[in-house]
Design a protein that fits this description.
The protein is built from 16 helices and nine strands. The protein is α+β, with helices and mostly antiparallel strands. The protein has three domains: 223 residues, Rhodopsin 7-helix transmembrane proteins (Rhopdopsin 7-helix transmembrane proteins, Up-down Bundle); 73 residues, Signal transduction histidine kinase, dimerisation/phosphotransfer (DHp) domain (Helix Hairpins); 150 residues, 2-Layer Sandwich (Heat Shock Protein 90), CATH 3.30.565.10. The strands form three sheets. It has a five-stranded mixed β-sheet. Helix 1 packs parallel to helix 8, helix 2 packs antiparallel against helix 4 and helix 9 runs antiparallel to helix 10. 32% of the residues are buried.
Length: 547
């Protein structure tokens, strides 16, 4: 036979043994049944293709008959191995009990293949030679197509059943690889019945290996992550090794041996490098999964915390209001008669503590409502000047206590009205002005301004207090945060600026500040968009800031 034709089954055999060897190493490492079955299948294909190559290159009939019988010693295991592969791949445990019959019949055909009851004599045709089929060969052909049909039915049912797109792709390529092997490879039996065929059936082994390798690489069949590098490297080494025996001189043989040894060294380094890279990627992927899980747990804990704060704040609000009410009636309205000076001093202290506690509960409720999206803006057409005056009036007593000078310079031009939530913006103003009052030493100066800047109003509150250190700028609007230089002197919840920021953002505005550093004062700014008409409110008519 022409050596050009003979090289086709040889190339297929090289790639088949390379893939089989690689998959077998995965079996020894991971002990997965599908690895072992596929490796044995690849070796059966290798025996078929290599025996065919040797048969085609034989110079004597006796040699050709020997190698063709060796071909069948591999081929007889292909049907049952295909069935076994489909059972594992398509998860068909109920069919396992039939495997013993498949393997038993394969071993019977294996021993028969070396006798004249299976094949005998030789058929010569244009492209090669083939032994002639005998009685048990006919039985084997029937068995072959029975098991092959079961294989395709199993894989097809699995493809239709699974909804995972990755598994669907795996099933699609497994089906395609084996279909090519059977449709192209089956005509290889025809010369056994005296029918001459070109050597194209032997391309099926090569195409089968290439399609299956693509599925391993592209669609993660068998979870083999370095298949490309190892498979093609092993195949190349086998080709280089075979090339040594084709040398025409001792010098050529020496250089081919050197090339083979160099290739082995480079291949080893390459495979180790790829494996290390894969291991690192897997570690990174595992770390990412763990971080995602930790993040999910943190979100759940944060939600639990918010739920607890909301519940606790609601439960605390009622008794605190009662305490404040009764103390106010006793201290302010004189209910209960004259109070001794010493007792009044203690009651004043209790009253101030209850007010601080009420403020804390109010802040916690606001935070809980904001973060659980249970708060929204009740829009009313308002004049910002009125809200600033209201805030200044409410905080006036604290300004007097610390002997500050508070000025509110109104622009000459009248400020336009806009739509906003009076309660929320007043609270923002009280928070910002209150911070300036608290964080500025006695006899300080606080200056409030408002300007009309194009389509927005910009309000600023400046003081000459202790300022904000540059390294604490990013933390100003965070929850439960107070500036380091102030937290030991002024007690607070650390929630005021966080709440203010969220209220301003709910109005589609912005809030920011400027400070040249500790001891140099601070100016807080916030802007509000000017709306000519009431913005859309999905909660309009509910009459509450909660939903």
């Amino acid at each position: 036979m022409n050596s050009i034709y003979a090289i086709v089954p040889l190339a297929g055999a090289v790639f088949a043994v390379a893939l089989g060897s690689f998959v077998l190493t995965r079996y020894f490492k991971e002990k997965k049944e599908i690895h072992l079955v596929l490796a044995l299948f690849c070796y059966s294909v290798t025996v078929w293709l290599f025996g065919t190559y040797m048969m085609f290159t034989s110079t004597q009939d006796s040699q050709a008959i020997f190698w063709d019988r060796l071909v069948y010693s591999g081929v007889v295991f292909i049907p049952v191995l295909m069935h076994h592969f489909s059972i594992v791949f398509a998860d068909k445990p109920k069919q396992r009990k039939y495997l013993i019959y498949g393997y038993l019949s394969a071993f019977i055909f294996f021993f028969l293949s070396f006798t004249n009851y299976f094949v005998a004599d030789l058929y010569h045709y244009k492209w090669g030679v083939h032994t002639k089929a005998q009685f048990f060969h006919h039985i084997f052909i029937l068995s072959f197509f029975t098991y092959v049909s079961i294989f395709f039915i199993n894989v097809l049912k699995y493809y239709k059943k699974t909804t995972n797109p990755v598994l669907k792709n795996q099933a699609r390529y497994v089906f395609a690889a084996f279909l090519v092997l059977i449709l192209l490879g089956a005509p290889a039996y025809l010369p056994a019945y005296g029918i001459s065929v070109p050597p194209f059936p032997f391309l099926s082994g090569l195409f089968f290996i290439l399609i299956l390798s693509y599925s391993i690489l592209k669609h993660k069949l068998l979870d083999v992550k370095v298949a490309g590098t190892v498979f093609f490297t092993v195949a190349l080494m086998i080709l280089l090794f075979i090339d040594i025996f084709l040398a025409k001189s001792k010098t050529e043989e020496f250089f081919r041996i050197v090339a083979f040894l160099v290739g082995v060294g480079i291949s080893y380094v390459l495979i180790k490098s790829v494996q290390q890279e894969i291991i690192q990627k897997e570690k990174n992927a595992s770390l990412a999964v763990r971080l995602e899980e930790a993040n999910t747990n943190l979100k759940e804990l944060d939600k639990t915390k918010d739920d607890f704060l909301s519940m606790a704040s609601h439960e605390l609000n009622t008794p605190i209001a009662a305490i404040e009410g009764y103390l106010s009636m006793i201290l302010v309205e004189g209910l209960g008669g004259k109070i001794p000076d010493k007792a009044r001093k203690y009651l004043d202290s209790v009253f101030q503590s209850s007010q601080r506690l009420a403020h804390l509960v109010k802040d916690l409720l606001n935070v809980s409502r904001i973060e659980s999206d249970r708060i929204h803006i009740i829009y009313e057409e308002s004049q910002i000047i009125d809200l600033i005056n209201q805030a200044v009036m409410e905080i006036g007593s604290k300004v007097q206590e610390k002997h500050h000078t508070l000025t509110f310079k109104q622009a000459k031009a009248k400020m336009p009205t806009t739509w906003l939530d009076k309660t929320r913006i007043t609270e923002v103003l009280i928070n910002i002005i209150g911070n300036s009052v608290k964080y500025t030493p006695e006899n300080g100066a606080i200056d409030i301004k408002v300007v009309h800047d194009d389509d927005k109003l910009v309000i600023s509150v400046a003081d000459n207090g202790k300022g904000i250190p540059n390294d604490r700028n990013a933390a100003v609007f965070e929850k439960f945060t107070q500036v380091d230089v102030l937290k030991d002197e002024v007690k607070g919840t650390g929630l005021g600026m966080y709440i203010s920021k969220r209220f301003i953002e709910l109005h589609k505005g912005k809030i920011w500040f400027h400070s040249d550093g500790a001891g140099k004062g601070t100016t807080f700014f916030f802007s509000l968009p000017i709306y000519a008409k009431k913005p859309y409110d999905p909660f309009a008519g509910e009459g509450s800031v909660l939903h």
